[in-house]
Design brief:
The chain is mainly α and 149 residues long. The protein has one domain. It contains 5 helices and no strands.
Length: 149
């Protein structure tokens, strides 16, 4: 028996979320810093990519929430509440906090000589937290029986 379409779409959204964070954070951005001539150029490009990642993360998280916050199927909602919804919400909040709270301070610290190391470290830690939330969501969704989500 095939899993319900909602479960398949939610699993795909979780996979896209985690995979995109993995590719960007562990492959693309390090390559930028290795291949581009200056850290400033690499940082500027990385900032644009992280902004795009924020919107992709937001879309994936909202799609997953819409799939499970369906009043027509309380069993699916109850299962999600126990399984993954807390990770989806936490990851979404981390993505938005990095974009609207930390990223502007990184830009400001670069321009005005502020504490760049602090804000960059905080942003990196929050990105790692988002990556863990996405990974736990994917892990939990991929192990659920087909009739529960």
């Amino acid at each position: 028996m095939h899993p319900p379409i909602r479960q398949r779409v939610a699993l795909l959204a979780a996979a896209l979320w985690w995979g995109s964070l993995t590719g960007l954070g562990f492959v693309v951005v390090p390559l930028l810093f290795m291949q581009l001539g200056s850290p400033a150029a690499a940082g500027a490009m990385a900032a644009k990519l992280f902004t795009a990642q924020t919107w992709l993360s937001t879309a994936c998280a909202l799609l997953m929430l819409l799939l499970v916050l369906n009043k027509k199927d309380p069993a699916a909602h109850a299962q999600w509440a126990q399984v993954a919804i807390k990770f989806v919400v936490a990851g979404l909040l981390l993505a938005l906090l990095v974009e609207f709270g930390v990223a502007p301070r990184i830009v400001s610290a670069r321009a005005e000589g502020g504490n760049l190391r602090l804000w960059h470290g905080l942003g990196s830690a929050m990105l790692l937290g988002q990556w863990l939330c996405a990974g736990l969501t994917l892990w939990r969704l991929s192990r659920q029986p087909a009739d529960t989500v």
